[in-house]
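Lab manual, section 2.4: Encoding a predicted structure.

Procedure: take the sequence of the chain (696 residues), apply the prediction step described in section 2.3, and record the output as structure tokens. A sample record is shown.
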Amino acid sequence: MTTFASANSSLLFFALAALLLPLLSFILLSVSGKRLPGKGDWLATGLTGLSFVAALLVFMGVFQSDAPHTSLLFKLEWFRIGNTTIEAGITLDNLSVLMLGLVTFISLLVHIYSMAYMKGDPRYHRYWPYLSLFVFSMLGLVLSGNLLITYMCWELVGVASYLMIGFWFERPKAALASQKSFIINRLGDIGFLVALMSLFSLAGTFDIQALNQQIGDALRQAAAALPLSDTADAAGAISGTADVRIYIAAAGLTLAAFAKSAQFPLHTWLPDAMEGPTSVSSLIHAATMVAAGVFLLARMFPLFPGELLDVIAVAGTFTAFLAATVALVQFDIKKVLAYSTISQLGFMMLGIGTGHYEAAIFHLVTHAFFKCLLFLGAGAVIHHIHEVKHHHNLEIGEQDMRIMGGLRREMPLTFWVYTLAAAALAGLPFFSGFLSKEMILLGSFGWALEKGGFWLLIPLSAVATSLLTAWYIGRQWSLVFMGKSRTPALAHVKEGNLKMKIPMAVLGVFTLFIWFSLNPFSTSDIALAGAFSANNTAALLQGVPGIITWGLLLLALVGLPAVLYTAFRGFSMKAQFREKESGLENFLSRGWYLDPVYNAIFVRPVLWLGNSMQAIDKKLVDGFLHLLERLVRSLSKVAAWLDKVIVDGLVNAIGGRARSLGDFFRGFQTGRVQQYMALAVFGLMILYLIKIVLDK
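Recorded output:
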């Protein structure tokens, strides 16, 4: 491990440039974006482009395709807590620079696409600072070497997501969706906060490298049946109670990752998040932000005990299957892709849970390309249906696939790149999705065979989910592009301009296998396989019988195309749809009724409790306070009367008498000496007479 003291300082400069340029964009656009040319679109896109160039230079200087690899560190003192120094800095290793390049590249393409997609929006000038804030937050998250700063950027990512989901806040659904995503993600963030406290109490540091090393050693010692206290460093950073706090911290991080990456049971916010602009959905809710949970688990992977990894694997597999079944019956073009994103994130969680986080990261990368492309393609379709709708004054749903069909002729480029992305999502050979998904499936089979028993249900369920994936994406592809147009006016839909075409074309190129492996049927020479750990694809294949390896390949070559063809035949020529859904379709289309269940178990009781507390506050607390206020007011009136009538009356009476006496005696003050002497003699005479009377 080296530091920047001995490393090329230019890497630090370019890394900081990649991080801070989006922040500069956010500040400039927030202050004067409305007055800039193009409402700031060229400034935001240009600075994001420079950030990508800097990120690319860092990637080329750091990334190594084989492990172990070198991490370049930069640290400086942030603040002190007693004798403990908290350092802030960045870490440049294979994982961080890969995410750095991925986030900036996808962001640049989405910026270019948005210049056409969002043009004419009344809040166009607000869109760009929101996007810049997200890019900065996401880059800070992936570069941070300090878990506390990671948490801060984690929260900023959530804020940016909230702003973008509710971008069209005048729409009730968008406003509610932004609130729902914010609340559910806050539940996960509580877990992150608990993890922070547990880890700091355990190791006295927020440094990610130190936490992974110390606690990873503790877990390895525990697995070897050695006392955890034996792993303490000279300062006693790890105590004998480390096991409890490790589990608490790992559970908290898992909760945070499940909320951010939309895993069961915290997944219901993501489909509703599609109320935001489609360009936002492609960047934040398909390619980058939702992958933050997977990234967090990969970054902190040494902290996770084996039992918790098993939970992650099971939850990921169930989430993937659940979301895939719901996607089967959706008619909203973006909802299909939203549930598909949840499902693919479940595959990534399966890779994490089975111990092959390098496979999960590989699928994260390939998924970012083809899912972003799918959303951009869907956005192109929605954008131009919207124009036709307003031009012809049609009452149609812009995202309803039932009104589409035959768009391959009107939108040929969108059709072809969408086809490439759909093939990659389905996992067909010659496409990137096949390689990454194959790696996860092979790893899960090896893991399950080692554990034995019912654990084999996990990879088998993942295989079944892969078939469902091919079905729902084939169904969508057929309903949107094949057959004849089910709405005659849409025959006049035209392709977008170059700002929309170029990003889609670039992403389409990256759905091909050649960027990741020279062999389209094998994962053995994939650079990412050994870039994050000492394991490579050969390690994944250990313990996996050849029949499983060949079976998965046969499934990809024969089974998936058969499913796609069946979906094509079933939906490409469909002109009418049933008005009434079957019981199963109703169950699936409503997401297994999880939202109503959550409403019954959580939302309604909380609302009832809130309303009850409001009633108690209004009727009891406020009633008592109002009664007390009236009593105090009455007492104050009595006191005012007593003060005015009795106290003031007595004081005024005494004062009046004193004034009368003063007035009386003032009459004797004439200034004449003769009068004073006469009065004195008269007074003496009176006193003498009084004495004579008293003597008798």
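Check your result against the sample. Residues 1-7, 226-242 have pLDDT under 50 and may be disordered.
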